[in-house]
Amino acid sequence: MEFILVTQQARPHVALIQLNRPKELNALNLQLMAELRDALKELDQNEEVRAIVLTGNERAFAAGADIKQMAGKTAIDMLHIDQFSTWDQIKKTKKPLIAAVSGFALGGGCELAMTCDMIIASETAQFGQPEIKIGVMPGAGGTQRLTRALGKARAMEMVLTGKSISAREAEKHGLVNRVVPVELHLEEAFKLAGEIAQLSPVAVKLAKESVNRAFEAHLEEGLHFERKNFYLTFASEDQTEGMAAFVEKRQPVFKGR
Ligand code: HXC
């Protein structure tokens, strides 16, 4: 592993993964993400491990996907690179994953923190989706998870302006579990992980899966449902009539067929 450090038993039954590209503020290049995926898969299968803490360093959890690696890519390049299959696998981690966040959690960094099950933030943590400032938008769940955590108005403002929020604001709106002094944030994450690690790993795994269901299943089902019904309207005479009336600049006559 070149860009992450893994400690299998950082505390009893608790593993630690540290993102380790400090000079680049832990910018998430493809190799780092692949290493993270592989490490999580291995820890998920290791029976000695019952909870996992993911951290960066004091200055940065992660300042986003690696812009230098993405610059110059075309849409088709991005499609072939298919980085989101790595993110999908990370999301499938069955054991509790706790982010210990200090400093920048921006773009993909904020999305990675939100992909974790819980977030312990240091007082210096800042969360943001600045992609709009570089002519793109969040791609790893930011528009969805931030909106669910903060509500539409606040998420919209963050995503459309690229402005970050402080750890305290994130705590106030339920994006993070709690905020602690910077020197304590990793210890606080270990404490939470350790507490969970004492409980039944089976029940914990199933409970995590269930909470995620409440959080994620509805949206996908909702979108799917909406799309199917949208298509179904095109089987009605009312759709033909409604659109024809618009084009012909007259009032439609709907018959319920
Ligand atoms: C590549 C990055 C980087 C990034 C920082 N660096 N963020 N490299 N990708 N996302 C590099 C800088 O180029 C610099 O290296 C070094 O890290 C230190 O950064 P500085 O900018 O010198 O530090 P500072 O002035 O303190 O500013 C910190 C910062 C700024 C505000 C966080 O670095 C910044 O705005 N970074 C980009 C944040 C961002 O836009 N993130 C979203 C990315 S898009 P050199 O060698 O030049 O000195 C994204 C899409 C996700 O995340 C969707 C798919 C996963």
Automatic annotation (TrEMBL):
This is enoyl-CoA hydratase. Keywords: Fatty acid metabolism, Lipid metabolism, Lyase. Could possibly oxidize fatty acids using specific components. It catalyses: a (3S)-3-hydroxyacyl-CoA = a (2E)-enoyl-CoA + H2O; a 4-saturated-(3S)-3-hydroxyacyl-CoA = a (3E)-enoyl-CoA + H2O. Transmembrane segments: none annotated. Its EC number is 4.2.1.17. It comes from the Bacteria. GO terms for molecular function: enoyl-CoA hydratase activity. Pfam families: ECH_1. InterPro entries: ClpP/crotonase-like_dom_sf, Enoyl-CoA_hyd/isom_CS, Enoyl-CoA_hydra/iso, Enoyl-CoA_hydra_C. The lineage of its organism: Bacteria, Pseudomonadati, Bacteroidota, Cytophagia, Cytophagales. Belongs to the enoyl-CoA hydratase/isomerase family. One of its GO terms (biological process) is fatty acid beta-oxidation.
